[in-house]
Amino acid sequence: MSGGVDSAVAAARAVAAGHDVVGVHLALSETPAALRTGSRGCCSREDAADARRAADVLGIPFYVWDFAARFTDDVVDDFVAAYAQGETPNPCLRCNEKIKFSALLDRALALGFDAVCTGHYAQLHQGVLRRAVDAGKDQSYVLAVLTAEQLRHAMFPLGDTVKPEVRAEAAARGLRVADKPDSHDICFIPSGDTRGFLAARLGARPGAVVDAGSGEVLAHHDGVHGFTVGQRRGLGLGRPAADGRPRYVLGIEPVSGTVRVGPAEALDVRTVSARDAVWSAGFAPSEPVVCTVQVRAHGGLAPATAFVDGGDLRVELDEPLRGVAPGQAVALYRPDPVGDVVLGSATITAAR
Amino acid sequence: MAEPGTTYLDHAATTPMLPEAVAVMAEALTRTGNASSLHSAGRRSRRLVEESRERIAAAVGARPSEVVLTTGGTESDNLAVKGLYWARRAADPRRTRVLVSEIEHHAVLESAEWLAEHEGAEVVALPVDRHGRVQPATLRAALADAPDRAALVSVMWANNEVGTVNPVRELAAVAHEHGVPLHTDAVQAVGILPVDFAASEVDALTLTGHKLGGPYGAGALLLRREATLTALLHGGGQERDVRSGTLDTPAIVALATAVEIAVADAPRRAAMLAGLRDDLVGKVLATVPDARLNGDPGTGTIDGGPARLPGNAHLSFPGCEGDSLLMLLDAHGIECSTGSACTAGVAQPSHVLLAMGSDEATARGSLRFSLGHTSTSDDVDAVAAVIGPVVERARRAGQPQAVR
């Protein structure tokens, strides 16, 4: 229970369904002082108090579990390391994979619980994970990384409901968080200044911004962590391109620190390579998978065929996608009118 | 009283109010009268307050004028530590050293830290032995360092976590060798240990109502007549000008009633609780052989009283997270505590156990069962019945923070 409306209503629904529910708030900030600041994330004292208050209203026990050290190791350090490698990580996905449905789930199972129930927007029935009914809120992309075993012990009671109805239900149940604003951004960067956060941890690692076509050095930068594939703004280019068209980050070379930029159409990719594939069904498909892929948290969908090679994937897109960044996940879906079914997920290593 | 179906073993956090205290408080709540007013309602209130003050004084070996009524432990500790510091420093600006034991309650520790951060104090931590006790030789050595610079000493009478009793009378004598005042937080001691303010020769002593069967929000700082102390709260000049604020007559009457009854009944109750406690510890150790009792072993005496709080059983369970134990016991209706403070709901490894030489994992895997006046052998049996499976399960859940 983060202290937000979604997890409060998820808990309420679990209680209403007759489960024996205990509320748990995750303390994820390493320094206790940091618990008192931060309005954007879900780790402030106020958020913990909101979660506790919701648990009180629901009449369930409530505990704060301290996973700060694990979170720092598995999510924050991973986030920083990925940027240092020129990748664009998704920390929410990593948190689901390593904390909520790993460290937390393991402890819960050991203590005698059967499942972890969260306020994520996704449908899950009999091990089949689908997109949420509320397309705008759908979080199946950051849950696609869960294994079949993890999904067996997960509950997402909000998948069949749209957000406004969740808020209305919270109000009807007397949960004071009903009109609490949605949390955005990255919970462990309450300032919202990701670039500053990374710079403080990685220091200056100067490199060049070069034209992908001509090889000409266009500018110098303080570190590849300031760049994401597909980025257009803040490239530090003093003058427009010769043809006057906007330029985008096409690729990042972490060792040399070289950032390649070029025109929009050069962003188009047709083949995506990925590692560490996870299959929701519990086993890898034996045939190439005809599916729809999603390559970032919002948007980035295309029909494709995925070829499995051990733990690796090669995804051939039927139509080109832009802004495919290494470090992001490629999630595979089987289109379905009830809600697209999640087939699996892997971490993008390259796109061309 | 505990809720039906639950076993309340957290009396050191707060203990049920005595029915007699509830009765006098309820009666007093129906009457109006500011004890500072001159009319008859005020005089009636004033009389109740002063009679209560006299009763409290008589019960704990103080003079009525030495009873400064407060809202309880935290206020009394703040008043003693900050007030004595300011007064001592005002008399001699060299006196900036605040000597506090490492096992103090946060009300003392944080007050001392605040003085260090804002008022130029130097905090001198007095180490404890493996039982959590401040040895007089430790204090003597710490004072010998710079006796002219010592502002005050604060050592608690009995520790709230592990129950170890300190040789407060001896410590006060050591402090007085150098003319330094000693404050003692005795919230866990009054009403169960033989606490005699005059005989102890301490200069200031904290007590609070809700730990001994009185109401929340009512307590006292016993302050020797000779002691000077700078006020924290300014206003109408109540309580020797040391603690302004309208007196809470109903709570004070109930406090006096509870103190009187608890102190009078202490010898009987101490023996009863020690018996239950030893039974509890014995049964837990029989079920979980590698569990360990923290603090004084509970066999000796200090100044005629037990060397360990009779109702305190503080145990470490290797390989367990205190949080997990608490939750699993709570699920069985057993209400206890880790005894240590939490930050934003996150249990912190006990500073008391760390000071006693525990490693962090042990400190995190500890529980405090504290018995009180409503405890029975049924409570002990309830713990004995579930502690085995609870520890086994908590062990499986492990210590997530211990991986680093």
Overview of the molecule:
The complex is a heterodimer of chains A (352) and B (404). Chain A is built from 8 helices and 16 strands. Chain A has 352 residues and is of the alpha+beta class. Chain A has 3 domains: 5-119 and 157-179, Rossmann fold; 204-266, SH3 type barrels, CATH 2.30.30.280; 267-351, Translation factors (Elongation Factor Tu (Ef-tu), domain 3), CATH 2.40.30. A 6-stranded antiparallel barrel of chain A has the order 11-14-13-12-15-16. In chain A, helix 1 runs parallel beside helix 2 (45-58), helix 1 crosses helix 7 (163-172) and helix 3 runs antiparallel to helix 4. Chain B is of the alpha/beta class. Chain B has a domain at 7-16 and 266-403: Alpha-Beta Complex (Aspartate Aminotransferase, domain 1), CATH 3.90.1150.10. Chain B contains 12 helices and 16 strands. A 7-stranded mixed sheet of chain B has the order 2-8-7-6-5-3-4, sandwiched between helices. A 3-stranded antiparallel sheet of chain B has the order 9-12-16. The radius of gyration of chain B is 21 Å and the shape is globular. The mean pLDDT of chain B is 94. Chains A and B meet through helix 2, strand 2, helix 3 and helix 4 of A and helix 9, strand 14, strand 15 and helix 12 of B.
